[in-house]
Amino acid sequence: MEDKEPIVNLKGVCICRDENVILSNFDLQIEPGGFVYISGPVGSGKSSLLRSLYAEIPISEGQAQVVGFDLRQIKRSRLCLLRRQIGIVFQDFQLLYHLTAEENLDIVLRAISVKRKSDRQKRIAEVLEQVGMGNKGYKRPHELSGGEQQRIAIARALLGHPKLILADEPTGNLDAQTGLEITRLLQRMAAREGAAVLMATHNRQVMEQLPARHISLQTQRGAFGLTSNEDKTKTPEE
After folding, report:
1. Euclidean distance between CA atoms 17 and 66, whole angstroms
2. What's 218's domain CATH number?
3. What is the pTM of this model?
4. Is the dihedral of CA 225, 226, 227, 230 positive or negative?
C-alpha cells in the first residue's frame, strides 16, 4: 500500500514579518487524519504559522505544500481554491450575533456558491449533527454557551469538506471541561473525516488528558526553534 500524501508538508520553512524572523528552518508533515498540537509562549509564532498555511502570511524560504498547493508559488487568483479546502476555528468564535446558528452557516455556503437552498439545508443539518448541535440551529449565539458557540464554529469549518482544519486556541475562552469536550470533538473529526487537524494551544491540561502528537515552539535569541515529543529538535540559525 502506498503512503498517504501529506496534507501539510513543510521543509526548512522560514516565516518573517517586518524583517523579524518568526520561524526558521521549520519542518512539519501531517497526513490525512493526523491530529497535532502546537504550543509555545506568547509570540513564539503559533498563530503566524497557522496564518501562513492559508497564505495570509508569506513563507520566505523552504518548501511548503498544503492541500496540494505550493505556497511559495501560488498565484493570488488561486488563493480561494486553497482556502476552500481549509477549515478555520477561532478562539473567539467569530459568529454573527444577529443571525441564528443555521444562518451563520448558510452565509458560508452561499459564499462558496452552493446555490440550491435544499443543498445548503442538507449540509447544514449534517454538520450540526456531527458536532452535537442538531437541535439548536435555530438559536442565536447569545442564546448558546461558549462551548456550544465553539461547536457551531467547528460546524462552520466543516461545511466545505476540508482536508485541513486549523484551530487557533479553540479552548482559550472555555472552562476546563468544555475545553476537553471541544478538543475531543476535533480529534473525532480528524479520525472520522480524514482531515488533518493542527491545533494551537497553551492548554496543558488538554494536552495531558488527550495526548496526541505535540510540537513545541521555543524562543531563543530573537528567533524561534522547534522541539517535538518525537525526539527531533531544531534550533534557530546562527
Report:
1. 20
2. 3.40.50.300
3. 0.88
4. negative
